[in-house]
From TrEMBL:
Signal sequence region: 1-21
Family, as annotated: Belongs to the glycosyl hydrolase 54 family.
Protein name: Alpha-L-arabinofuranosidase
Biological process annotations from GO: arabinan catabolic process; L-arabinose metabolic process; pectin catabolic process; xylan catabolic process
Domain Alpha-L-arabinofuranosidase B catalytic: 23-339
Entry keywords, A to Z: Carbohydrate metabolism, Disulfide bond, Glycoprotein, Glycosidase, Hydrolase, Polysaccharide degradation, Secreted, Signal, Xylan degradation
Localisation: Secreted
Disulfide topology: 24-34, 84-89, 179-180, 406-444
EC number(s) stated in the UniProt entry for this protein: 3.2.1.55
Alphabetized InterPro entries for the sequence: A-L-arabinofuranosidase_B_cat, ABFB, AbfB_ABD, AbfB_ABD_sf, ConA-like_dom_sf
One matching Pfam family: AbfB
């Protein structure tokens, strides 16, 4: 009796610890502990209660560390929302939860220079990727082209041909073909030092190197000078196109053995599908590997900055995790219940309505967003303006062409043409149906940032640090500080705030 009770007690305790174990507790149990654990959405150890990430706000450049609501829990998004109210916020640090201080910060330039004035990459908006975990709001890291994080002095990462594993939870619908949306092991010099000097998760539909079945996007491994979907030859039909909104991607590698595994991150089946497991590429330089041990997020090893994607959480391990360990991690991710939430706030824009967008900066309160041919500008418009001008300043609200939860603005006088950004300038152009056009024509309304209160600001869906702004009476997508003249912080909040009114035509 006594022994039976204590056995049941032990069983209960064991069950509890398995249920509450975080991904890194699971990797540790499997003998392949995390050497880095990065997430803006939740703690990745059951006991972790430190800082998950740091945000910096535009109003006064001060920073705030965001931790979990409780040990092992979901990030305190409410603290971010309060701190960032009525201003802009960037993610400045993604802390390492492993205790090794392998934090990710703004990536420096490498073989490719970043877009900041000092050559660094851009930081991500703190609000580009809202989600819920078990119903609690949190924010992921929305990487636009030009955005990147890195640590070139990592403690404990795999070097040479040493074994490692890694996973990341990504947005399976946010990708492109640019090089390279990666998370994983890369060069410490931010330059391409040759085949086999990287081992990182890649996600996107680039076909220059490898590819899988269908048209992508695919999970591949960036091993430097190649994105690999499997063994040679380049195409691995067992590497599927991914359509899951939340996608668990796993890559691992050891002596002449590596694997690609993945699953819908919300799938409670508790296992990853193996897309490839086998020998290293037969091309020179990949066996043995020459891993260097830096960690990158959102960029290539040489700081290639052409890619986009969204990262919610990920880890790097030492040792080659077993499939069973990875499957247990996948079960934990599914239990975190990632789900989508709205990207918009502020006054509602009804789809199909015709609207005008009035500037609110004190210089310009009689001016409205209009267009002259392909150029988006502001013009003084009234109900007695010429019919042509009234039409040029009236827009039909459409469900966002690139993301239906946001909006697009169709020109009333040129049906089929929409406001889009191109090189950060706003244009009115015909919808060519391309993914690029649809994304560049999508804006997410939010409560106006302007000092007067009220109104709406319109975040570029694909560049959530950037908002529709009038500057010298021209339309741009501008960030609050940056390399373009129109990124000036002066009057930024007012310049990006518009009053949505009835259309003129
Ligand atoms: C924040 O820092 C940037 C760059 O150092 C500077 O240009 C800007 O004026 C600062 N903003 C405020 C509100 O202090």
């Amino acid at each position: 009796m006594a022994s039976k009770l204590s056995f049941l007690g032990l069983l209960a305790a064991t069950t509890t610890s398995i249920v509450s174990a975080g991904p890194c507790d699971i990797y540790a149990s499997g003998g392949t502990p995390c050497i880095a654990a990065h997430s803006t959405t939740r703690a990745l150890y059951s006991s972790f209660s430190g800082s998950l990430y740091q945000v910096k706000r535009g109003s006064d450049n001060t920073t705030l560390n965001i931790g979990p609501l409780s040990a092992g829990g979901v990030a305190n998004a409410g603290a971010q929302d309060s701190f960032c109210a009525s201003t802009t916020c960037l993610i400045t640090i993604i802390y390492d939860q492993s205790g090794r201080n392998n934090h990710l910060t703004q990536a420096p330039g490498g073989a490719f220079r970043g877009p900041e004035a000092n050559g660094y990459d851009n930081l991500a908006s703190a609000i580009g990727a809202p989600v819920t975990l078990n119903g609690q709001k949190a924010y992921g890291v929305f990487v636009s082209p030009g955005t990147g994080y890195r640590n070139n002095a990592v403690s404990g990462s795999a070097k040479g041909d040493q074994a490692e594993g890694m996973y990341a939870v990504l947005d399976g619908t946010h990708y492109n073909g640019g090089c390279c949306f990666d998370y994983g092991n890369a060069e410490t010099s931010s330059t391409d030092t040759g085949n086999g000097h990287m081992e990182a998760i890649y996600f996107g539909d680039n076909t220059v190197w490898g590819s899988g079945s269908g048209s992508g996007p695919w999970l591949m491994a960036d091993l430097e000078n190649g994105l690999f979907s499997g063994a040679n030859p380049k195409n691995n039909p067992a590497d599927p196109s991914i359509s899951a909104r939340f996608f668990t991607a796993a890559v691992k590698g050891t002596a002449n053995l590596w694997a690609l595994r993945g699953a819908d991150a919300t799938s409670t089946g508790g296992s990853l599908t193996t897309y490839y497991s086998g020998a290293r590429p037969s091309v020179s330089g990949y066996n043995p590997m020459s891993k260097e041990g830096a960690i990158i997020l959102g960029i290539g090893g040489d700081n290639s900055i052409g890619a986009q994607g969204t990262f919610y959480e990920g880890v790097m391990t030492t040792g080659y995790p077993s499939d069973a360990t990875e499957n247990a991690v996948q079960a934990n991710i599914a239990a975190a219940r990632y789900a989508v939430t709205s990207l918009v706030s502020g006054p509602a824009l009804s789809i199909g309505s015709k609207v005008s967008l009035r500037a609110t900066t004190s210089c310009c309160t009689t001016r409205y967003i209009a267009h002259s041919g392909g150029t988006v500008n502001t013009q003084v418009v009234t109900s007695s303006s010429a019919a042509a001008l009234r039409q040029q300043a009236t827009w039909t609200v459409r469900a966002g062409l690139g993301y239906s939860g946001c909006v697009s603005f169709e020109s009333v006088d040129t049906p089929g043409s929409f406001i889009r950004h191109y090189n950060f300038d706003l244009q009115v152009a015909a919808n060519d149906g391309s993914k690029q056009f649809r994304e560049d024509a999508t804006f997410c309304p939010q409560t106006g940032l302007g000092s007067a209160g009220g109104g709406s600001s319109f975040r570029a869906w694909g560049y959530p640090t950037r908002y529709i702004r009038h500057y010298n009476n021209l339309g741009e997508i501008a960030s609050n500080g940056g390399v373009h003249v129109f990124d000036s912080p002066s009057l930024f909040n007012d310049d990006v705030t518009f009053v949505v009114g009835a259309g003129f035509a």
